[in-house]
Design brief:
It is built from 30 helices and 22 strands. With 764 residues, it is an alpha/beta fold. Among the domains are: 6-181, no CATH class; 213-278 and 535-601, P-loop containing nucleotide triphosphate hydrolases (Rossmann fold, 3-Layer(aba) Sandwich), CATH 3.40.50; 607-752, 3-Layer(aba) Sandwich (Rossmann fold), CATH 3.40.50. The strands form five sheets. A six-stranded mixed β-sheet has the order 3-4-2-1-5-6, sandwiched between helices. β10 (319-323) and β11 (326-330) form a beta hairpin. The radius of gyration is 31 Å and the shape is globular. It binds adenosine-5'-triphosphate. One of its GO terms (biological process) is recombinational repair. Keywords: ATP-binding, Helicase, Hydrolase, Nucleotide-binding.
């Protein structure tokens, strides 16, 4: 093709079309602003229904406006030229089809651009020369601001390609441009360059459990996020009310990905790190590996159940209680009988307590009646209801009943269990004294991520604390609202179960009890975050290899439909209670009923560095999937072997050079946990406030962090400190080092006074 004569007019034509698209976007925004102002101007008048209708409209316009504002950057990125016989809806034959962040039509409803998630856009990601799907040419439009800077074309309808070419990466120019961009500390979307193996996963059906295994940098996080956006588009009706939950490993990671979904026009996904899954608690990472390991074990569910049942106590001997000056006896037999009855109700502890106390209060009231009638002489009947009241209010009785069956919150139960070793030992006979000691903590210590599933388990077993003696008039109205809400999702539930060929996993009545409507005006997302019993329509889990069986239990509870997208890399497991295979992790919940897909191309790490990481993993005997790296790097991994005591001075010496290579991008120094404070102080001493740490750290261009915190993140340049210590810290597991080495997009430098693990150097 004579480029110079054809490309320029093509570019001009695209620029004109893109100008039209942005003009239309501006028009739509202006329309929404106008509608919103008009609605707000109506003022707070009229019936409650009118007011709430107005609020709903205002919320709707606000959402739409937020979406239109969010898609400004790279509004359009693709174009398909199609065969004439392709079925076209709302398009002229022969007209190109533009693919963008949202669908747009002109004011006569002619289609201007197709949403990337629509079925008509699928060919943009899937068509190959071998399977053209009616596509003659695929074009990537590269924009900066509202200007088209360049085009990247793939012609699919020629015989010019050899067989190998059918395997090439789609939109290679556009892809490489995206991959070589400087990192900003925030993940961006990949909507313009999604590759076909990724697209197939993004568009898979909603129902069931989909597990996506992929080595480092294969786009698992990107795929998980785009899948959430796709599902919300494809199943909006279903998922808008029930919501989608996206779970990630840490707060830094959540901050890293938080802008992707809004840039795809989706603001309704609930995003939470594993420490945030219990409403009202923000848990800190668990520092003690041994206690993380124990707390994550599946048997902890039994331990919690035992801890609760141990708090439903019998009397050692009959006990005297005084009611209004009269002595009564609470017998051991009566308490045993009441406990049996309460347990038989199968209600959670706090709710079953009502059955327990009612039974005993009735028993004591009868005793009291007998005593009073006996002393008053024959035929003098005493008013029973009055006696029941007397018994209930007696301080003695209250103390005795509480001793036997105390209402508890999940926090009070767990706190006491950790603080009092004899209670823990009684609930957990499977733990030895060393393990019991590992779980000890004083009351008031902050909750950790591994406590979260235990609190959740306790909440299930204990039931509503507020229900204890608190039968307010609002309860009935609340129940009615709950049922209405549940009804809306029930229909979807049945449909989904049917589609998935699953039954028996969820009881309709269980669902009816979920999704309590706490406030009429809250969005589904806001309500879901605050409600432990919320039943999500779909859950996406990233870095899922880290989750313990107890964390999985919690998540499965959050989605009784068991509609999950689970992404992760078994080889990167560093958590003491994480998974060693997907089958093992999934078995307790769905047995073999999950689909496993694999991503095979590494888009992040340059080839030489990816190969070094693979060698390290292999040398340590780790079985890993070895994705193909898409690009060669400029540098092989550099290794500095240092003399004892030389580390900090050498780091000081090399840092300016490394920062210069990062050239405005991001540099991370990844260190063993035990050296974090020391190395951070040294780097801060050199670069001052440029150095970030913690979940806000990624807004700085230099960051010092541990491998676990670096999980899921990426940087232009990475300096790894003392790799062998990184392995030793996690009992010889190479997962953390493997993660650290694969965080870079350009350059890796390894510095060690200590041993260099096998495989890092090419010559080994
Ligand atoms: N199709 C694509 N187009 C452009 N960039 C992509 C594509 N796929 C992945 N990337 C980029 O590759 C990098 C790695 O992606 P991502 O973080 O999703 O990988 P990952 O599999 O989750 O990695 P890890 O397990 O190592 O954390 C990101 O910068 C992402 O934007």
């Amino acid at each position: 093709m004579p480029e110079s004569t054809t490309v320029q007019p093509e570019l001009e034509a695209e620029r004109n079309y893109v100008t039209t698209l942005y003009a239309r976007l501006d028009e739509l925004r202006a329309e929404k602003v106008e509608q919103l102002t008009r609605t707000r101007r109506t003022g707070p008048q009229g019936s409650i229904q009118n007011v709430s209708e107005r609020d709903s409209f205002a919320a709707l316009y606000e959402d739409r406006l937020a979406q239109l504002n969010a898609v400004e950057d790279k509004l359009v990125f693709g174009r398909l030229d199609l065969d004439d016989d392709v079925n076209r809806d709302g398009e002229e034959a022969g007209a190109p089809r533009y693919i963008g962040r949202i669908g747009m039509t002109d004011d006569e409803l002619r289609r201007l651009m197709v949403d990337w998630r629509a079925p008509e856009a699928a060919a943009f990601y899937q068509a190959t020369a071998l399977h053209r799907q009616g596509v003659r040419r695929r074009r990537h439009l590269m924009l900066r601001g509202r200007t088209v800077l360049g085009l990247d074309d793939e012609v699919l309808d020629t015989d010019l390609f050899s067989e190998n070419d059918t395997e090439h990466l789609q939109g290679e120019g556009a892809l490489m441009a995206a991959l070589t961009q400087k990192r900003t500390g925030r993940m961006g979307d990949i909507v313009g360059t999604i590759q076909s193996e990724q697209d197939a996963i993004i568009r898979s059906p909603l129902a069931g459990v989909l597990v996506v295994q992929g080595g480092p940098g294969t786009g698992k996080t990107a795929v998980a996020l785009h899948r959430a956006a796709f599902l919300l588009y494809e199943h909006r009706e279903r998922l808008n009310s029930a919501g989608v939950l996206l779970v990630g490993p840490s707060n830094s990671f959540m901050r890293y990905i938080e802008r992707v979904l809004p840039s795809l026009g989706e603001t309704g996904v609930v995003m939470a790190s594993v420490g945030e899954l219990y409403p009202g608690i923000i848990a800190v990472p668990e520092q003690n590996r041994e206690s993380a390991r124990i707390k994550g074990k599946a048997f902890m569910a039994k331990v919690m159940a035992k801890a609760v049942s141990n708090r439903q106590r019998l009397l050692a001997e009959d006990r005297r209680v005084v009611v209004e000056g009269t002595r009564l006896v609470l017998t051991r037999g009566a308490v045993r009988h009441a406990r049996e009855k309460a347990r038989a109700s199968r209600k959670p502890h706090n709710e079953a307590r009502e059955v327990f106390t009612k039974t005993l209060v009735r028993e004591l009231a009868e005793q009291l009646q007998q005593v009073l009638e006996d002393s008053a002489g024959n035929g003098n009947a005493v008013d029973r209801s009055y006696l029941v009241q007397e018994v209930r209010e007696s301080r003695d009785v209250r103390i005795a009943l509480n001793l036997c069956w105390m209402p508890m919150t999940p926090q009070s139960l767990l706190e006491e269990l950790y603080a009092k070793e004899h209670l823990l030992a009684a609930a957990a006979p499977q733990l030895n004294s060393r393990e019991l000691a590992a779980l000890h903590r004083s009351p008031g210590s902050p909750w950790t991520e591994s406590d979260v599933p235990l609190l959740d388990e306790a909440a299930e077993l204990l039931g509503d604390f507020k229900a204890v003696g608190n039968k307010d008039g609002g309860a009935e109205a609340q129940l009615k609202r709950d049922l209405e809400n549940a009804e809306a999702t029930l229909q979807n539930v049945e449909e989904m179960l049917f589609n998935a060929g699953i039954d028996g996993l969820v009881e309709a009545e269980d669902l009816a009890a979920m999704n309590q409507e706490t406030a009429a005006r809250q969005t589904a997302a806001e309500r879901a975050v605050a409600d432990r019993n919320w039943a999500y329509g779909h859950v996406v889990v990233d870095e899922a290899q880290e989750l313990s069986p107890m964390q999985w239990r919690l998540l499965m509870r959050r989605c009784p439909l068991k509609s999950f997208t689970v992404v992760g890399d078994i080889a990167q497991t560093s958590s003491a209670s994480g998974a060693s295979s997907w089958a093992q992790a999934m078995k307790p919940f769905v047995a073999e009923r999950f689909t496993l897909e694999e991503l095979t191309v590494n888009y992040r790490t340059p080839m030489q560095i990816a190969e070094a990481a693979t060698r390290v993993a292999h040398a340590a005997g780790l079985t890993i999937s070895t994705p193909k790296a898409v690009r060669e790097g400029q540098w092989p991994p550099l290794v500095d072997r240092l003399a004892p005591g030389e580390l900090l001075s050498k780091l000081h010496e090399v840092m300016p050079g490394e920062v210069a290579i990062a050239d405005g991008g991001l540099l991370a120094v990844i260190v063993p946990e035990s050296r974090l404070t020391q190395v951070r102080a040294a780097v801060q001493g050199q670069f001052g406030r440029r150095v970030g740490s913690g979940s806000g750290g990624l807004s700085q261009d230099i960051v010092v962090l541990g491998a676990r915190e670096a999980k899921g993140l990426e940087f232009d340049v990475v300096v790894v400190i003392e790799p062998q210590e990184m392995i030793d810290e996690v009992e010889g597991s190479v997962g953390d080092l493997y993660v650290a080495m694969t965080r870079t997009t350009q350059r890796l430098r390894i510095m060690a006074e200590g041993e260099i693990p096998a495989g890092i150097d090419t010559e080994e």
